[in-house]
């Protein structure tokens, strides 16, 4: 949307969304993009990869990076992968948004802040989920949060209810460096549709299985074919044990069927075409702690 007649300069830069799991980073990403790119859930391990979301306005291109939350006990290879992804994002960012939840301050928040302090980055504190509170309560929460660090700014928002998002975007515009756009104006991510498909399936697994969800579950797209009439997707759901396979399939296949239906409907809406989706559940023990398998399943450094 570069207006050739206007003298206004173009701005472009990376904005890192950081914070412990579950504060609403992925929800905020979807809200600012006006489109669902990232999967979200109440479960802490929802985001596993670094995901770029691009918002282009006249003269401003914002490159948001959604990250897995930083974990404190990174025992398995997949947790170390997630931590590394979040940490390296801090270094490439032009601006860091540190997200917390209004009225809550945990040891995990403290640990994230400690990393930010070590990197000496200017940090904007974004206090999310303000829809849970009255104005009076909120004022107290903001006061407490502001004492944690010398933040550049503090912005209270509700990512889910779309409150104060314009104010946040205005602040980001002020801080973006002058630069040409890095991406095409109509591009919204650097991720493939295959990646988005596997994430959509994983999201449905998480919401349908709830507490029963095996921690080590991943989705691999085995086949993706677009024809004129429809898109054909074959996906494998990998679990670590036979018992987990039973949970994912459900009684007479009921769980798997529900996952397949919900994922198919959402993907068809996104692709604006009918989708034929086939799901298989397979067991590969120890994948979450195996470097080679992690790369095969798409957990690669980007
Ligand atoms: N009440 C409320 N809930 C929110 C808000 N933003 C996110 N959530 C919820 O918080 C949970 C975690 O969100 P998610 O974006 O996955 O968090 P992430 O782990 O930081 O990416 C989900 O259930 C969201 O619906 C908000 O502004 N208000
Ligand atoms: Mg997330």
UniProtKB/TrEMBL annotation:
GO terms for molecular function: GTP binding; ribosomal small subunit binding; rRNA binding. PROSITE patterns: G_ERA, KH_TYPE_2. GO terms for biological process: ribosomal small subunit assembly. GO terms for cellular component: cytosol. Pfam families: KH_2 (PF07650), MMR_HSR1 (PF01926). Residues 11-178 form the Era-type G domain. InterPro entries: G_ERA_dom, GTP-bd, GTPase_Era-like, KH_dom-like_a/b, KH_dom_type_2, KH_sf_prok-type, P-loop_NTPase, Small_GTP-bd. Keywords: GTP-binding, Nucleotide-binding, RNA-binding. Residues 201-285 form the KH type-2 domain. The keyword Disulfide bond does not apply. Belongs to the TRAFAC class TrmE-Era-EngA-EngB-Septin-like GTPase superfamily. Era GTPase family. PANTHER family: GTPASE ERA, GTPASE ERA, MITOCHONDRIAL. This is GTP-binding protein Era.
């Amino acid at each position: 949307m570069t207006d050739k007649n206007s003298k206004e300069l173009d701005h472009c830069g990376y904005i890192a969304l950081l914070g412990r799991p579950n504060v609403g980073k992925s929800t905020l990403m979807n809200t600012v993009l006006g489109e669902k790119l990232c999967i979200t859930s109440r479960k802490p391990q929802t985001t596993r990869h670094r995901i770029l979301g691009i918002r282009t306005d006249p003269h401003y291109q914002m490159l948001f990076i959604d990250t897995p939350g930083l974990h404190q006990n990174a025992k398995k290879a997949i947790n170390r992968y997630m931590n590394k992804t979040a940490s390296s994002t801090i270094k490439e960012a032009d601006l860091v948004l540190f997200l917390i939840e209004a009225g809550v301050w945990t040891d995990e928040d403290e640990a994230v802040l400690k990393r930010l302090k070590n990197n000496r980055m200017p940090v904007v504190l974004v206090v999310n989920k303000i829809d849970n509170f009255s104005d009076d309560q909120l004022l107290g929460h903001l006061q407490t949060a502001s004492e944690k660090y010398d933040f550049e700014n503090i912005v209270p928002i509700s990512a889910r209810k779309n409150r104060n998002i314009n104010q946040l975007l205005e602040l980001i515009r002020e801080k973006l460096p002058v630069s040409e756009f890095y991406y095409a104006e109509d591009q919204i991510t650097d991720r493939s549709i295959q990646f988005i498909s596997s994430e959509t399936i994983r999201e449905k697994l998480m919401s349908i299985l709830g507490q029963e969800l095996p921690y080590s579950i991943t989705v691999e797209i085995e086949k993706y074919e677009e024809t004129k009439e429809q898109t054909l997707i074959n996906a494998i759901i990998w679990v670590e044990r036979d018992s987990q396979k039973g949970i994912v399939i459900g009684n007479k296949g009921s769980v798997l069927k529900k996952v397949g239906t919900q994922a198919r409907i959402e993907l068809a809406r996104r692709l604006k075409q009918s989708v034929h989706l086939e799901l298989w559940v397979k067991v590969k023990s120890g994948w979450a702690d195996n470097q080679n398998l992690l790369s095969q399943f798409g957990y690669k450094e980007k």
